[in-house]
Specification:
With about 300 residues, the protein is α/β, with parallel strands linked by helices. It has twelve helices and twelve strands. It has an eight-stranded mixed sheet with strand order 5-2-1-6-7-8-11-12, with helices on both faces. It has a four-stranded mixed sheet with strand order 4-3-10-9, covered by helices on one side. α3 runs parallel beside α4, α6 packs antiparallel against α7 (about 210-225) and α6 (about 175-195) packs across α12 (about 285-300). The longest helix has 21 residues, at about 175-195. It is globular, with a radius of gyration of 19 Å. Bound molecules: NADP nicotinamide-adenine-dinucleotide phosphate. NADP nicotinamide-adenine-dinucleotide phosphate binds near residues 9, 77, 81, 104 and 132.
Length: about 300
Amino acid sequence: VIWHVLGAGSLGCLWATRLRRAGLPVRLILRDAERLAAYRANGGCVTLIENALPQAYPVDAQTADRQEPVERLLVACKAYDAEQAVAQLIPRLAKGADVILLQNGLGSQDAVAARIPDARCLFASSTEGAFRESDWCVRFAGHGFTWLGDAANPVAPLLLKDLHDSGIPHEWTPDILSRLWRKLAINCAINPLTVLHDCRNGGLLEHGGEVATLCAELTQLLERCGQPAAALDLQSEVLRVINATAANYASMHQDVANRRRTEIRYLLGYACAEAVRHRCPTPHLQHLQTRLTAHLASKGLRTD
Ligand code: NAP
């Protein structure tokens, strides 16, 4: 079965090169004819830098309007692009196609799934890190792990064999929503504060009170949303992450520093919206969102 990879950014290129290296058929789906022409002018290759060694892999590319049926799709766009990008492929999607959603946060997966009811959407939560050095050239941080699951169907899909053969560290889980919620809550407790205090993750050790208050509200929210497992010892996990990644800048901090649009709507924004929906009082979380939104706006960045 052919792998179609929608979005040739950091994660899209990281997955495409490893699948290709294992001899599997892979097609990149690029944004438009202009991007496709640029890719071809660049040699039609994706370069993966692993352990400081660059290796170029020839990967076929196409645009969404090609006729080839799509049976196995990896959606590697940002959360705010996923729904529109997948919608373009609806005429090509085979009935029962597997669609892996790599987006961070929550909200975009349900939006995509609602558009393609005849496909099987597999949600993913990944700790793998990759960074774009230039167009179609990614540097792999070299470690990490991807959880995959389908909240509606615990039966593992056949495509896991391809991931195994490609050396993509992964595991199938029946509790993918719990994992996504846990990651989202940790993100909410760390990322916005690093933006507002303009600090590395370790800088939050000086703001322990603020972090603790947010963790208390997030714990209540997770319980109210029917995710008690994701709420377990949240604060100690957040402190562990802060210590383990003290020297790093959080992804949202990097986005803001590089003047890129953030995924706020699918992270803190989603948590705040769910709190309102479940009538769960979270004043500090809501205030955090107000502050973060104002901060982004003051920098001329999008707040949605
Ligand atoms: P990225 O580098 O910005 O890549 C996204 C790609 O999607 C871009 O290449 C973009 O094209 C493409 N795209 C957007 N709309 C498209 C469309 N309609 N058709 C075709 N391509 C389209 O993003 P990323 O870092 O890989 O992140 C993807 C998701 O994974 C995010 O939700 C992120 O939070 C999550 N994630 C990332 C990492 C990581 O280490 N990078 C780790 C864990 C989770 P252009 O190049 O033309 O703009």
